[in-house]
């Protein structure tokens, strides 16, 4: 699994289209020519390649104009993979990603020229190329602009000998530099270029994200998703020291059940391979020096939202609103923060506001276009918080960045919260069952947290931007 070339373009207004980095691998190009024979499409010069790529992705100056071969309705588009026409032949696959002021692109070498182009997931060379590009983008987003391109070129020399990636984690770059500045009596893997020396500890971080869309229409509509990841930072001595971890459930009433599990390539699963089987999950891995994501997953739990709400807002320039929030009885009543925000789209600023609240404190934003209800670290003893308010708006032209869907009664309230030392799925790690192969006993640190994302309650009197018939329903907690 090798790459034929790598390209980094500048997308800023001052230097749009400028080539920041172009790296071609002649040995991979020779292999490609032998494998494809008469079907071989050579790499174009960097400038021509960059211009054609910008046109293909509709990023060039004429992108606003209709181009039939690119913009026709029946065209085949499989972003981030595209093909570029070169001398009546198709250069494929070209993997390209844009983020911020950068466009990064690579051309993986697909060894089988008869590969089915429709099923990209089965083409491992494309997956490797995509991982390399993501690593480059993550590095460019955090690196110093003055030295990042030089460092990136050095990293490609060390981590991609002859165009074959040995490591796509750019977090290991500082260690690779240090490795090549020292002499070692034994060979080290690219992902762990030298042995760690110092205080030994293993830091596990389990972070879960809960997303919910709720409405009190039609008997109570709720779409709920819980997904999370487990990241590891292992400071342990030994080059190939293996760590064994056991995943357990904190909830004695529900065995651990995880869906859509993605496991890091360096991790092996011992015992039952089905994570949703409810048995203990034993994972074994040899950690790199930097922090890495060991596991990503979705969870079928909880069945009901941790915070259930009702939002009612009626009126135009004079508005009355009611918000009721109920914390689920099985959710820990302790938050790092918990806020509810209502943005008044397509309205003028708030002129007057009168409110009545049984918990927390509401306040208007500085521009008076949103209301923030600070609930604090706990709900009341009955786990229910209620806010009623009357607002008057000034008549003012619509702001250009307003949401086109949120007009009149179409609006929502968004809940933002974070909770430490807890997970909704019950996923946890037993520190007593964390072992290291070479017998050392590092300190085990486990951090768990829950955060909300797009946790929205839609106005009962307005429309919702999703099909009602496919949403699941929850039991009403408000009368």
From TrEMBL:
Major localisation: membrane
Family, per entry: Belongs to the adaptor complexes medium subunit family.
Among the Pfam families in the record, one is Adap_comp_sub
Q: Which UniProt keywords apply?
A: Membrane, Protein transport, Transmembrane, Transmembrane helix, Transport
- Tell me the protein's name: AP-5 complex subunit mu-1
Species of the source: Nephila pilipes
Q: Does the keyword Transmembrane helix apply?
A: yes
> Where does the sequence pass through the membrane?
91-111, 123-141
Listed GO biological process terms: endosomal transport; protein transport
Q: Where found in the cell?
A: Endomembrane system
PROSITE patterns assigned: MHD
- Which residues belong to any copy of the MHD domain? 199-458
Classify the protein's membrane topology as the record does: Peripheral membrane protein
Cross-referenced InterPro entries, in alphabetical order?
Answer: AP2_Mu_C_sf, AP5M1, MHD
One cellular component term (GO) for this entry is:
late endosome
- Per its UniProt record, what Gene3D superfamilies does this chain match? Mu homology domain, subdomain B (2.60.40.1170)
Subunit organization:
Probably part of the adaptor protein complex 5 (AP-5) a tetramer composed of AP5B1, AP5M1, AP5S1 and AP5Z1.
Ribosomal protein recorded as keyword: no
């Amino acid at each position: 699994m090798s790459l034929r070339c790598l390209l980094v373009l500048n997308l800023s207004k001052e230097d749009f289209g400028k080539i920041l980095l172009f790296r071609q691998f002649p040995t991979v190009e020779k292999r490609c020519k032998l494998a494809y024979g008469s079907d071989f499409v050579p790499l174009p010069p960097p400038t021509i390649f960059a211009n054609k790529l910008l046109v293909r992705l509709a990023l060039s100056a004429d992108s606003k104009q209709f181009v039939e071969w690119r913009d026709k309705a029946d065209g085949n588009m499989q972003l981030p993979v595209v093909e570029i026409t070169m001398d009546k032949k198709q250069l494929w696959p070209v993997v390209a990603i844009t983020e911020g002021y950068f466009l990064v692109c690579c051309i993986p070498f697909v060894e089988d020229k008869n590969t089915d182009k429709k099923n990209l997931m089965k083409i491992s060379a494309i997956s490797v190329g995509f991982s390399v590009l993501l690593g480059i983008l993550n590095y460019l987003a955090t690196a110093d602009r003055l030295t990042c391109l030089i460092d990136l070129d050095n990293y490609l020399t060390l981590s991609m000998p002859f165009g074959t990636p040995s490591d796509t984690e750019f977090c290991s770059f500082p260690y690779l530099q240090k490795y090549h500045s020292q002499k070692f009596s034994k060979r080290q893997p690219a992902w762990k270029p030298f042995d760690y020396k110092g205080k030994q500890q293993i830091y596990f971080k389990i972070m879960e994200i809960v997303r919910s869309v709720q409405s009190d229409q039609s008997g109570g509509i709720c779409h709920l998703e819980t997904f999370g990841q487990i990241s590891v930072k292992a400071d342990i001595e030994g080059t190939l020291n293996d760590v064994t971890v056991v995943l357990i459930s904190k909830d004695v009433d529900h065995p651990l059940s995880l869906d859509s599990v993605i496991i890091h390539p360096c991790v092996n699963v011992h015992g039952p391979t089905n994570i949703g089987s409810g048995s203990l999950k034993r994972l074994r891995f040899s950690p790199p020096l930097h922090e890495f994501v060991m596991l990503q997953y979705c969870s079928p739990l909880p069945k009901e939202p941790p915070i259930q709400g009702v939002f009612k807002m009626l009126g135009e320039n004079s508005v009355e609103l009611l918000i009721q929030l109920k914390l689920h009885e099985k959710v820990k009543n302790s938050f790092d923060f918990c806020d509810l925000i209502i943005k008044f789209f397509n309205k003028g600023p708030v002129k007057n506001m009168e409110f009545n609240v049984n918990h927390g404190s509401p306040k208007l934003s500085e521009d008076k276009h949103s209301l923030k209800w600070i609930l604090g670290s706990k709900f009341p003893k009955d786990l229910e918080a209620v806010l009623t308010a009357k607002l008057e708006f000034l008549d003012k032209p619509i702001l250009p960045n307003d949401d086109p869907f949120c007009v009149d009664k179409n609006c929502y309230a968004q809940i933002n919260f974070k909770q430490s030392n807890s997970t909704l799925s019950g996923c946890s790690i037993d520190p007593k069952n964390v072992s290291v192969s070479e017998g050392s006993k590092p300190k085990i640190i486990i951090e768990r947290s829950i955060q909300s994302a797009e946790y929205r309650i839609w106005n009962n009197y307005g429309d919702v931007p999703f099909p009602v018939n496919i949403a699941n329903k929850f039991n009403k907690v408000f009368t």
